[in-house]
């Protein structure tokens, strides 16, 4: 059961990151693609699977955010990644601001992945 949840989660992580980068590139170079229905719906479906599999893993491992330090860091990292991603894709007013938020989102994502693999929070 654990391996199934872990593989589902890691697959959703990979797809989510791929779609974030792809959507950012489309926003920069071909924004019309982002108006297609599938481009709006698919990322939400994948992110829902990602969240559900994360919750499933928490229950399987009996480790929870706000109790376990590394999971708390991951939760904060994911929220920060979402906010930065929102600015990178939609909210930033300038191209420079969008690129800065995009790069910052990837840095936060990398540090969150590091914590996920090592199970050691960076700043706690």
UniProtKB/TrEMBL annotation:
The keyword rRNA-binding does not apply. The keyword Transit peptide does not apply. Keywords: Membrane, Transmembrane, Transmembrane helix. GO terms for cellular component: plasma membrane. InterPro entries: SirB. It comes from the Bacteria. This is SirB2 family protein. It comes from Alteromonas pelagimontana.
């Amino acid at each position: 059961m654990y391996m199934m949840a872990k593989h589902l989660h890691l697959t959703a992580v990979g797809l989510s990151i791929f779609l974030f980068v792809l959507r950012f590139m489309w926003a920069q170079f071909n924004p019309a693609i982002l108006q297609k229905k599938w481009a709006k719906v698919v990322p939400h479906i994948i992110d829902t699977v990602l969240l559900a599999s994360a919750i499933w893993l928490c229950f399987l491992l009996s480790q929870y955010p706000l109790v376990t330090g590394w999971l708390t860091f991951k939760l904060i990292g994911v929220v920060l990644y979402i906010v930065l991603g929102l600015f990178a894709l939609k909210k930033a007013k300038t191209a420079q601001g969008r690129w800065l938020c995009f790069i910052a989102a990837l840095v936060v994502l990398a540090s969150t992945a590091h914590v996920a693999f090592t199970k050691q929070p960076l700043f706690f």
